[in-house]
Amino acid sequence: MGVCAVIQWAKKTGDYSVLSHADMCVIALTYMLNEEYKKEQAEREEYQASNSTVYVRPGILTECGLVGQAFNDVYTRRDNG
Predict the structure, then answer these.
(1) 34 against 65, higher pLDDT
(2) 57 near 79, Cβ under 8 Å?
(3) If you average pLDDT over each of 16-20, 49-53, 61-65, 77-81, which comes out highest?
(4) Which residues, 6 or more positions from 71, have their beta carbon under 8 angstroms from its beta carbon?
(5) Residue 81, pLDDT score
(6) What is the 3-state secondary structure (H, E, C) of the chain?
(7) Residue ranges per domain, the chain?
(8) Cβ distance 2 to 28 under 8 Å?
(9) What is the CA radius of gyration of the chain?
(10) Is the pLDDT of residue 67 over 80?
(11) Which residues lie below 8 Å from residue 13, measured CB to CB, with a gap of 6+?
């Protein structure tokens, strides 16, 4: 949203007559910075979610019937040593 969009918005809301050009520039800049911040936050959260590590307690996969005991033995040895 640039200054032109802020001017259009101010006219629609009836604020145009009380806002100076500097006011509208500050509003436009604030809006642009806020949108940039929200985009960076979303990207950061997406990156963190995609790079998170899931830790599984040794033996839980066997208890749930997902894998055999051999996998848990290897996992436990690797975890402990």
Answers:
(1) 34
(2) no
(3) 16-20
(4) 61, 62
(5) 47
(6) CCHHHHHHHHHHHCCHHHCCHHHHHHHHHHHHHHHHHHHHHHHHHHHHHHCCCCCCCCCHHHHCCCCCHHHHHHHHHHHHC
(7) 1-50, 54-81
(8) yes
(9) 27
(10) no
(11) none
